[in-house]
Backbone:
């Protein structure tokens, strides 16, 4: 499940992922939130947090994740990933060099730092 987080500027799409994430979660929650932010802003930011109960992605959700990132490739200003899941950290590190904006990975203990960084002025 993907949950939208409240209390962020409208150029920030902030989500927390719980349990098992499916393509439907992307189609009904994340994609509409990204599209809405992109209608109002040239560049957007993403805060992506894995909750303690995160179980993983099904194959179609992993594909949607890649598609969302690539369809709006040049419009990502910042991406903050909050996770203690090692394979997600590794995947983000591997792909960070191709992102046009800044990306930072934070452990769950530093979630407040991630939230501050994603909302700070450039």
Residues:
């Amino acid at each position: 499940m993907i949950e939208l987080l409240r209390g962020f500027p409208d150029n920030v799409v902030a989500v927390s992922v719980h349990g098992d994430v499916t393509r439907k979660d992307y189609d009904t929650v994340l994609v509409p939130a990204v599209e809405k932010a992109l209608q109002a802003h040239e560049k957007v930011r993403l805060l992506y947090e894995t909750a303690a109960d995160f179980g993983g992605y099904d194959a179609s959700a992993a594909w949607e994740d890649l598609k969302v990132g690539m369809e709006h490739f040049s419009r990502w200003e910042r991406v903050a990933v909050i996770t203690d899941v090692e394979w997600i950290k590794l995947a983000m590190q591997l792909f960070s060099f191709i992102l046009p904006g800044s990306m930072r990975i934070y452990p769950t203990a530093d979630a407040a730092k991630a939230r501050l960084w994603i909302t700070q002025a450039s």
Summary: The two ends are 31 Å apart (CA to CA). Residues 18 and 52 are 8 Å apart (CA to CA). DSSP finds four helices and five strands in the chain.
